[in-house]
Amino acid sequence: MTEVVFLLAPRVHILDLGGPAQVFAEAAEFGHDYALSYVADREDVPTAQGITVRAATEWPALRAEDIVIVPGWKGRGPFEPASLARLAEHHAAGGTVASVCSGADALGRAGLLAGRRCTTHHQLQDELARRYPDARVVRDVLYTVDDRLVTSAGIASGIDLALHLVATEHGPAAAARVARAMVVYARRNGDEPQASVMLRHRSHLSDAVHRVQDLIDSRFTDRLPLADLAAASQISERTLTRLFTTWTGMTPLRYQQLLRVERAEHLIGHGSTVEAAARAVGFEDARMLRRLRSREPHTSGQ
Question: pTM above 0.85?
Answer without folding.
Answer: no
